[in-house]
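Components:
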Amino acid sequence: MTTALPTRLNPFREFDARVWSLAILKGVALPVVGIGMFLLIWHLVSGSIQTSLGQFPGPVQVQEQVKNLYVEFLEEKQREVEFYERQQKRIDARLKVEPDFKAEIRPYTGKPTFVQQIFTSLVTVFSGFFLAALVAIPLGIAIGLSASLYTAVNPVIQLFKPVSPLAWLPLVTMVVSALYTTADGSLPKSFVTSAITVMLCCIWPTVINTAVGVTSVSKDLLNVSCVLRLNWIEHIQKIVLPSAVPMIFTGLRLSLSTAWMVLIAAEMLAQNPGLGKFVWDEFQNGSSNSLGRIMVAVLTIGLIGFLLDRSMLWLQRRVSWDKNAITR
Amino acid sequence: MTEHFSRPLLELSQVSIEFKTPKGLFKALDNVNLKIADGEFVSLIGHSGCGKSTVLNIVAGLLKATSGGVVLDGREVNEPGPERAVVFQNHSLLPWLTAYENVELAVKRVFKGKKTKAEMHEWIEHNLKLVHMEHALHKRPDEISGGMKQRVGIARALAMQPQVLLMDEPFGALDALTRAHLQDSLMEIQRTLKNTVIMITHDVDEAVLLSDRIVMMTNGPSATIGEILKIDLQRPRSRLELADDTHYNHLRHEVLAFLYEKQRKVEDFAQHAKKKNDTNAETQPRLKVVS
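Structure:
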């Protein structure tokens, strides 16, 4: 009798379409039900909240605003194309009259669209995140290797770890204004301020996790390093760093999520032309559409945060030797 | 015990070691004296916690004797080095490197400037062939079985061309059949290379089968060498033939008698575990994961 094992557990059975379709149904249907429930509750609750800017946006209004923002993006694109066409026409006309005229192409200075703001935010968050990683990983290795250094640095880390970006921002703004005076326009001050604030806030998870990764290098591997008489550079390069890679990645993943969260607040106050500024501008604008547009931004922020986390996970799977350390 | 060997390659003289514990000094070893000749295979046997590993770690240079010392080939041992290669109990291969790369790391360290790239490559493959791992050169430790990992660990140690090969319960974590396979491999390698080996073991059969001498240690604290038994069985040895050999069984009996009559261990488990924690040199990670 083959029915001794339930079909679900029988590893020897042939591909069973019924079981598979059930599994797929589960994997797809349950999330869909979850999202559906959320939309329903959102719709019901939003209908009963009245603000001075009108009714709180429900899913329908938000969906309209998504369309609006997309149309605005297309229109703005169109205007930009037309601007450059007009400019080119003028230059061509002038060249006919004045053949040795040196044409200067003026850049388009229209209002940034939602899509451009997403892009700015991503550039800013990665700048801050990379700056943080650049400092955090060596620092983490150093304090992981030396117990005395760890004891010395730990109070400072614990002190600054819980500080909100909003507290740093005024200080960072003033320091950037004082020191960053090249003013060649390549990097706007608001960008530098936001990136540095992001860095200050997201550096800690990587520092701490790297240090933990370094201190928990297996005793056996340390003995191997001793027996092979590796010098300290080789010791770090061949034993410590690879051992700590899974923990470093855990830290980097936490840092990136923190960075993304901090960024929105930093952009709001530093007026860096990203998603944070979009939210702030819409809030100040106070039109009947504003709340809906802010809600679009909220969902976008969530979606991008999720994608950032997934891409770090993907990178970790590609780079790290320890495939078991990562589950979700 | 009479010494047949004129000049010892390795000499432990009056080795004692004390560990600082919260309850004061703990004397793990007291006055250990041992001479080992070139090409000799010596097993250290004793109950767990008796300081066998400590002896090995002192010879390896991973621990420093409080008094007394170790002399290898006329030079005092005071730090670890590849001329005293260690095969650790749980293989200690670097998990992110393949079998080949693990051996390569050691070979590059030891033969930098002495061998060309091609010679190194040949030497790495030669050593992996010696332990019958040529089919899995480019597999990572997590892709091969426990026995295979231990084979690679042995290949790595052999590839350093050590003067003394130190093995810390090399087969302790393996199942009985795999262990027998590896013991046979080790005897085969030993026949050709004639390495000087110190091996720690719990396994009486393993000790009698492989060794020229068995060093039996008394129970700690202040453990020392109790008896040394010379194993004068003909080589090559075969486990099947020896099973019925009266002399083999007599030698086996000698070791068992030492362990279970003279050094019978009466100690409850909790006390034992505690003592082990006190003497263990292993450190806990200082930090905890903070997310």
